[in-house]
Amino acid sequence: MMQRPRNVLLIVVDQWRADFMPWLGADFLRTPNLDRLCRQGVTFRNHVTTTVPCGPARASLLTGLYLMNHRAVQNTVPLDARHMNLGKALRRIGYDPALIGYTTTTPDPRTTGPRDGRFTYLGDLMEGFRSVGAFEPTMDGYFGWLAHKGYRLPERREDIWLPEGEDAVPGATDRPCRIPAELSDTAYFTDRALTYLKGVNGKPWFLHLGYYRPHPPFIAPAPYNTMYSPAEMPGPVRQADWREEAGQHPLLDFYLRGISQGSFFHGAGGAVTGLDEASIRLMRATYAGLISEIDDNLGRVFAYLEETGQWEDTMVVFTSDHGEQLGDHWLLGKIGYFDESFRIPLVVKEAGQPARPGAVESAPTESIDLMPTILEALGGEIPRACDGSSLAPLLRGGPPAGWRDALHYEYDFRDIFYSRPESHLGLQMDESSLCVIQDARFKYVHFAALPPLFFDLERDPHQFTNLAGSPDHAGLVKDYAQRALSWRLRHAERTLTAYRATPEGLEDRGTNT
């Protein structure tokens, strides 16, 4: 038996994709503190978020539910208040779960009224957590901290993320942003974390430590803006022309024609398909710099835990909410069905002496596994409705019999105020969705009302050639479609399905499964 943790540090960064992990081969990056965590814990090579973007991804991570069950299907779509989440579950076992950052959760409108101010922005905090370092709504906590520090905010406060210099042009750049590193949002979250940890006064604690980076805008404070050379960065994986990519599928065509640079470079204009390879490498160098800034700040948190004798008693989990296209397939952001949006880092260090220090585990794992992993480690009860499985067996020896043999993820592309693929494609709201089943050899993408996709990952690892219509692959397409259907049937909502009324009274079969 491994030591039960006294404390849990759950680190959730934003938009960090899995192949930007030095421990998994990204030797162009320098992250000594994350590397240290990897040496002491288990790194999961084959890990995905079960949905994107931020709000749905965090709902899955913190409820342990697939998108098809929690149904907070897009940013701005409410999360049903009936669902158990990690924060509420931790309260049941005596923890006061603290949260720094955000969860991008829109509240259940049945618990409040239509004039509630939380319905005027992208998301708020999930019920069950206590904020000790707010970012939402609209980053007010961070900008208030800057003002408190004496920093003179510009009239448009977001201009702190414009490049330094009067002649600077917004867009991919190696110029620093206007805010110094000691006042960056990464520094803010770290300051809040250390303030919280210094105030817990010896009590067992759980801290969700969120970081906004390497989320856009893609601009870094000095010295991180020039820490990496564009020449060090891997080039984009894409067809020679974006129109070739667009021909793969109607949904991809919509995004390639509609995504603007302004969402990724504050103040910039033009389509993302206008970015040449030099600009993408420059953008990736900035992205890498933002990653190293997080790593330096994590070093401050790790050092404090070690100095105060808490490192050995603390379970540390490091992950991201979702990935980032970074110019691959001519895309930016987290959308659609490509691996770059869904594959994310996961490192877990148990308390005490880990059983597999430095191990890299290749079994398929999903973001829904974190809630049950943490609850089991702390002695809590895993809700029957939870779709994920505890990673404890993988932390201590490898996948048990019956572990999943494929990755599963979903994406809902119904209209919201800042993106309208549903209208463009002539679909109904509830048919604007897709699900993916993917193993080491094949990847199948099923759409509710659009043509499917099928990729041979061995011959076509970058997923350029859709084989769904190939007669030679018709049998395989059928097999994977059936596997996807079976997966959905097995994970249909089951909060109460284990209970039975019997002549002897209520029976709970869930205690035996």
UniProtKB/TrEMBL annotation:
Entries under InterPro entries matching the protein: Alkaline_phosphatase_core_sf, HdlasePehA, Sulfatase_N
GO CC annotations on file: cytoplasm
Keywords: Hydrolase, Metal-binding
Domain Sulfatase N-terminal: residue ranges: 6-379
Keyword Heme: no
GO molecular function annotations of the record: metal ion binding; sulfuric ester hydrolase activity
NCBIfam families assigned to the protein according to its UniProt record, in alphabetical order: HdlasePehA
PANTHER family with a match to the protein in the record: IDURONATE 2-SULFATASE (PTHR45953)
Protein name from the UniProt record: Arylsulfatase A
